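Action item from last meeting closed. Structure (163 res):
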């Protein structure tokens, strides 16, 4: 029971430390435009701790309902948070399937990495969508947002790349 409580506490602490303005309005960084808005549903967590090291795996699913894409986060997404004496890192990998803004069936792979001492994460995207191809390998920023009452991941692209 103690390990379960510690695991859930670490999960909440790790995720909340990335949240920007949990009760205020979240805005795109200067020079960037929001291109994806992803609602996340956390389905559990598992933690292993040894000395001053810890790893928490957080499986999740979710949905996307924004102008550029409508679809589902496949329930294989895993957010890994690694605690080290010098800080914490976050790494999430997941697939989204659905329809892009042109109404075409498409998929998006996202790997989102971050450092809890930084305000933004750094998503890497690969998509088979022609309409969203500008996201492939682009210099993107991500932000975890709790202002809606749940966990939302917002992904921003440099304005000059957005089609």
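Sequence:
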């Amino acid at each position: 029971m103690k390990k379960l409580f510690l695991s859930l506490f670490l999960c909440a602490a790790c995720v909340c430390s990335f949240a920007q303005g949990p009760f205020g309005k979240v805005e795109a960084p200067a020079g960037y435009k929001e291109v994806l808005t992803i609602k996340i549903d956390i389905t559990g967590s598992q933690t292993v701790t040894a000395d001053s090291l810890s790893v928490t795996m957080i499986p999740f699913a979710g949905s996307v309902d924004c102008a550029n894409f409508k679809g589902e986060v496949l329930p294989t997404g895993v957010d890994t948070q690694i605690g080290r004496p010098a800080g914490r890192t976050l790494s999430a990998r997941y697939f989204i399937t659905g329809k892009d803004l042109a109404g075409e069936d498409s998929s998006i792979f996202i790997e989102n990495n971050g450092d809890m001492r930084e305000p933004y994460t750094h998503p890497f995207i690969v998509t088979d969508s022609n309409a969203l191809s500008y996201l492939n390998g682009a210099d993107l920023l991500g932000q975890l947002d709790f202002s809606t009452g749940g966990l939302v991941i917002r992904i921003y692209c440099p304005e000059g790349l957005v089609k």
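Note appended to the action item: The longest strand covers residues 69-84.
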